[in-house]
Structure formats: structure tokens, C-alpha cells
Amino acid sequence: MFFMTQCRYTVRKQNRPTYFLLLLALVWGCTTSVYAQEEAQAPQKPEIRAMGVEANGVEVPVVQIRVDEYLSRQIHPLLNYVFFDDNSATIPERYRVMTDIAAEGFRPERFFGSETLDVYYDVLNIIGYRLKTLPDATLTIVGCNANVGPEKGNKDLSARRAEAVKKYIMDVWKIDAARLVVQSRDLPEKPSTSKESPLESDQENRRVELLGSWDVIQPVFVMDTLREATPPIVRFYNKVTTEAEPQQWGINIKQRSKNLRAPITAAGKIRPVVDWKINKDKNAIPLDTVPITYDLEVRFKDAGVPNEKSKRMSMPVQMITIQKKRRERLNDVEKDKYRLILFPFGSDKVEEGNAKIVEFIKKDNRIKPNSKITITGYTDIVGTADFNLKISERRAKSVAVSMGVDKAGVVKESKITGRGKTPPLLYENNELPEARFYCRTVVVEVENPVEYD
Description:
Elements: H1 2-13, H2 16-41, E1 47-53, E2 59-61, E3 65-76, E4 81-83, H3 100-103, H4 116-120, H5 123-133, E5 139-143, H6 155-173, E6 180-184, H7 198-205, E7 207-212, H8 214-217, E8 220-230, E9 233-239, E10 246-255, E11 258-259, E12 264-267, E13 273-277, E14 292-300, E15 308-309, E16 313-315, E17 317-320, H9 322-328, E18 333-339, H10 353-363, E19 372-378, H11 385-403, E20 413-420, H12 433-439, E21 442-449
Parallel strand pairs: 3-17, 3-18, 5-6, 19-20
Antiparallel strand pairs: 1-2, 1-9, 3-8, 4-7, 5-7, 9-13, 10-11, 10-12, 10-14, 14-15, 14-16, 18-21, 19-21
Helix pairs in contact: 1-2, 5-6
């Protein structure tokens, strides 16, 4: 007030326009100060940036995502078990069932580009299809139970489980009942047993076993186009500066304005680091060179705090197709992946179905002096880390001996290792019995250079 009085007095004595200029400057200064305070208090937008992670775990700037195509032979072992819920004889919904009309169009070619566990969920259809194309083949359907709690000694439950499978194969695949032999028992002939994880063992023993000739239960063999992204992992670093509590957040990954993969979402506090393992989901690997875009979206619990989205970022994509390699005669390789039939719980013996797969690989003439071979043993989550590591190593070495590649000089390069239960597991959802079975395996990868004519 004193300042204003003095200003007024001065203007009367001297120059009246000066008074108005001073007053305007004062009002402008106060308004600017208020706006500055409001801007400082306003929440900043979320921030997201991406780094690449090479196969060896080293972080690198994401200059671009490179997608390479390779011609590949694939073997998907067929776990010939159907697992049931506790005290239930209903085939679980995760198994793919179809009508008899839909079955007429079923072909094994549908499994091109599929992961092994996805192939497994068609086990009833694969076996039904084979029985239909092999009119003299038969199938023995053995119902089992966990032999604990309400299932203890309940062979009637085992029989009803087997009958449910038989009915599906008869109704959908039109297989004569005389070719389907039903048996029932309590525990399976080779039950899962674990003192450390009895609940998981019980879950694995609630099953129906499908037994038949090799032509009926053999693995699924496909010629496929393998697509691999480099770097194999994109690591997102996320940041939110506002103190408001997030209700939900998500990372949107798109190509051509469409989701390249399902958004990575979670409730509550934002994870500052999120890994996107591109090669884990074949459907998420880019199909063309349109840049990938990504952003971070945050929704807050407080209704008074507006939802926020980060600036949209992008990553360029480079495609190296098989046609491009052939046309430009680039250095190219064929990558075969053979997944062995699953080892019994606690076993490292190459026998029965595994021996037949090993023999197939040898006869296929894919192992050559200039081959690079990687043989990796895996286990599930059950058991101690030390035991699992050792048994996975023994499984890998057993396969190497059976294939004759354990000695130096047989191939150009070989790597024989066991991963045990070291993350990431081969199939991470070990809550399901089939995922644990599929982790008890050895994966053989054979890389051969392409020889141009």
C-alpha cells in the first residue's frame, strides 16, 4: 500500500502515464508469479525410455529392432497326458475341444509358428486325427487319480476321467469304440513323487494317460520359418514424478497403431524396470519395417488427478527375410530346434520315445562337421536348486552322448549345459502340471550354414 501511495503521489507531481505503466508492471508480475506457482505444482507427464538387452545380458541403446528369418525344422514333443482338477472328471477348459464339423478341417499344418505348450493343448485332436488317418491303430486310455483325500482308492473317478476322453474322441473324431480300450487305476504306473512338493505331485497324478503305437503318440514335426529379434529383450525404464497413487499403469506397444502385443499392465505402484522378451511370443515379433511405438499410461486412484500418458516413443525395425538372404547371397544359416520327449520325474535316462527322437535327428543328416550345436537341459520349479542344476546337466550330457556329439571334433562347435531351475524357466507358468512336465526336457539346437548353388 505504501508503494502504491508513493507511486500515486509521484505521478501527480511528475508524469501521469508513468503511474499506469508501474501499475501494469505490478499486476503483470503478480499474475506471472501465480501462473509460475501453478505450473510448478502441476504433475509432470510419465516418462518412459527403452534399452536393448543382448543375449549375454549387456544393455545397449536400442538403435533398431532387427528381425531375422531362418528356415527351421521343429519337433514338438507330445505329452500324452490329460490332467484333471481335484476330484473332477470334466476335461478342463484349457484343452482345445471342437465339434465334429470343425474337426473335418483340422490339419497339423496349423501348428506352424506355435510354441510347444500351445501344441500340447490340442493333444486330443492330434491323437484323434492320427487315429482317423490310421484305421488299424488303437488307443489305450488309462484313468488315474492322486490316491489322496477324496480321490484315495477312487477308481470310479479314474474310470469316469477315462470315459470322458473316450467320449470326446468317439463323438468328435468318429473313432469306433472297439479301438478305444479304457482302463482305470489309482496312481499312474510311473507317478510323480516329491516330498518337498506333494501338492504338485498330486496335481500331476490326476490324469488320463493315452497309450498307443509310435505313429499315434509321436511328436509333431513341422517345417517352419523361425523369426528372431535382436536384441532379444527390450528393457523399459519408467518414471512418474507426481505423488498421487497410481491405480493402474500399462505400457502400450504398437505397430501401425495396432497393438503388437497385449499391453503390459499391472495395478498399484509402477515398476521402474520392465523387460519385454520379444522372442518369447512369436506373434509379437514385427512382420514389417514400420517403426514400433510405445508409451506409458497411468491411471490414478484420486478422481481429482487426471490420467496421464507419456510422450509416444518409437523404435525402427529392420527385416532380414529369407528371400533377401537368398537374393543377396548373404551369410545365412538354418536353425533346427528339437525338443525331446519329456523325462520322467527325477530321471536323466535317454530311453523309449527320447531314443527315437535322437535316432531321427541322426538319420535326418542334420549334424555335420560344420554344425554348431547347443544342447540345454532344463527342469521345473520343484526341488532344490542344486539338485535341479545337476540333473539338468546330466540330461544334457546323456543326450549329447546318445547323439555322438560329446567328443571334440565331431562338429564345429558344441555347447552342452544344464540350466536347472535358473530363471527364466523354459515354461514359466509352473503352476500347471503340463508346464512342469514340459520343463523336464532337453532342447537340441542345430545351426548349419546355407550352401548356395
